[in-house]
């Protein structure tokens, strides 16, 4: 049985380009982001992959990344489930702020703690641990079962929601996941063992 799960962080968004904290705000993809998403689809097509089910967040940049990938795969009508459990980490009061302006307001060290600690949330927002608290149950009860039944599943989401998912998938510690960076528009292909552990992992870089 081919238990296959593919994770893709959305292509570059307008606010990525402008160096803004995005979180649950809803900017769309840039031209580069569109190109990254299309390229992701082409890389998956080159592996002759097709999917039985897709998941994405409630945010436009992830939905449009998925749409572009499925277009390249010739599967524009694939059953797709959208859920806010897969939304990006909520940056709270930082949302919409330029990262340099945030450093000027709160100090380099404080902003670094909010961005890179595991369990310290920014004001009004979520830590990576908080993000995991909604991602992990969703993964276990919604995403993992079809994978284990042998369906090929595609997830297009966000840097932090996917990091939380990868933490569970790969059994990483809080320290290990904080070192993990996900590039925009780069598919990660997992094949799972019968016990849900990772049998094989490929990062499809250009």
Automatic annotation (TrEMBL):
Substrate binds at residues 9-16, 22-23, 61, 88-91, 99, 115-116, 159-160. Transmembrane segments: none annotated. It is an enzyme of class 5 (isomerase). GO terms for biological process: gluconeogenesis; glycolytic process. Pfam families: His_Phos_1. GO terms for molecular function: phosphoglycerate mutase activity. Pathway: Carbohydrate degradation; glycolysis; pyruvate from D-glyceraldehyde 3-phosphate: step 3/5. The record marks 158 as: Transition state stabilizer. Belongs to the phosphoglycerate mutase family. BPG-dependent PGAM subfamily. This is 2,3-bisphosphoglycerate-dependent phosphoglycerate mutase. It comes from Kaistia nematophila.
